[in-house]
Amino acid sequence: MTGGPRRDGASPRDPRLSGAEVWLTGTPAELDALTAALTAAGHLTQRSTRRALTGTDTGRCRLYLRLTVTAAAKPPARGPEQGGALIDLDAARAHRRPA
Fold first, then answer.
1. Does 79 map to a domain?
2. How many domains are contained in the chain?
3. Which domain range does residue 45 map to?
4. Where is this region: Disordered (predicted)?
């Protein structure tokens, strides 16, 4: 390496990145549902190739998404009467896989 201070930052040759980055891990069906929900909230600008996981995570995949999302002035309130759902935490914990 030649003299001079080390520059720690993005390369000036790379395009400026913007938007939200999301790493998703789940079953293929879960990734499809999450991708659809996130795409409905914004504009999908980048999507990686789905990668299958191994070992105890066999059957699950990893996916990277980059989205441009416009922030709303005030998020809409959603309750059960507007189509929201309450989660039964005891039932969810009973079906959870051990770590």
1. no
2. 1
3. 18-70
4. 74-99
Check: CB of residue 53 under 8 Å from CB of residue 6: no
pLDDT for 46-90, tens place per residue? 899 999 999 999 999 999 998 888 776 565 666 656 666 667 778
Cα torsion angle, 24, 86, 56, 98, sign: positive
84 three-class SS = coil
Token pair, residue 71, equals: 């922030």
Model pTM above 0.90: no
- Asked, for residue 4, whether it belongs to a domain, the answer is no
With respect to residue 29, please indicate whether it lies within any of the assigned structural domains. Answer: yes
Q: pLDDT tier at 18 (50, 70, 90 boundaries)? A: confident
Q: Which pairs with CB-CB distance under 8 Å and at least 24 residues apart come from 31-39?
A: 31/61, 31/63, 35/63, 35/65, 38/65, 38/67, 39/67
